[in-house]
Predict the 3D structure of the following.
Amino acid sequence: MNPRLDRLQPYPFERLRALFADLRQPEGLEPIALSIGEPRHALPGFVEPALRDAVQGYNHYPTTRGEPALRETIAAWLQRRFDLDTVKPERQVLPVSGTREALFAIAQAVVAEKPGARVLMPNPFYQIYEGAALLAGAEPAFYDLAPENGYLPDFSTIDVATWDAVQLVYICNPGNPAGACMSEAAMQDLIRLAERHDFVIAADECYSEIYHPEATPPAGLLGAAARMGNTGFERCIVFHSLSKRSNLPGLRSGFVAGDAELLDRFALYRTYHGCTLPPPTQAVSRVAWADEAHVAHNRALYAEKFAAVVPRLQAILDVTTPAAGFYLWPRVPDGDDEAFARRLYAEAGVTVLPGRYLSRSDPTSGHNPGAGHVRMALVAEPAACVEAAERITGLYESITY
């Protein structure tokens, strides 16, 4: 067996199951799960007819690069959304079977295995980044997302030796779990670092379309590159998904876009890897990327839930509405995120994820930037989210900070 598999840590939800193993949820209360970021809004109306019309596509193998019509639709969406002059669908867009597998696979294609190779990633983070680094033969390196910096990266804390060892940098923008949004200027500073130290930037932008309906849309890495003169997006690749944007997590459809030479090499890797999109999936995806009405409706539902839930929770928690995404990232009473999660599960029937499960502790200081927080995913229907907030405040209404 590959010995690197032994370095993979348990997934957060495995740790959550172990945390609750000796507990039972209260009888008479419908369980409410705020722990997993699985969108549960209704399917867009175009999904079923698009699948019916394309069902004959199951009769043949899909190509690695996907159908031209899908790549063209994605390129047009990128141009509209991020104010780009040109995105070349034939070489700068690659459909993928959900960004989870692509975020993992990109490290296997980009990282040149050699002593001291590093992959830099946020902390807290999406655990796929860490596993991708380890199985590519690199060491994970972390930059903390701290409240004193608005949960945004501070790349000035990274020393030159680390930058010189880094081959790949993951950013998540908007961030998971805090929902903070990097500015275009901050991304341009990172691109300059990539040019100076010769590394690739992988921007996980899967939450970019979930923001307040009246707010400015979050910036993107390709727009940042183009507006600093990097119109070929050298060293820059972005990952987008229909899971969050279109409430289609089971479709397993997304795309990677950016640097054409990088995507050529990634396409070669994927020819062997074998993750291609079935033609009916591509047909639904094409309709989804061309339609914005259902996305606006999705945003409005999340805004409704934040408006109803956050004021209730603020009575007992240190919590604010995020700039984007569908998570809350509150600090908890007494700072013990595991104890807080256990009490909610056992006494209120509400499941949340301890923040320490999304982070790694500093080996020297022991500091874990996720500890003392919990992640709450407002993915259920509005009434269930409000009910969860009321149960939580009912338990902790006497807490003050």
Observations:
- The longest helix spans residues 293-313.
- The chain has a mean pLDDT of 95.
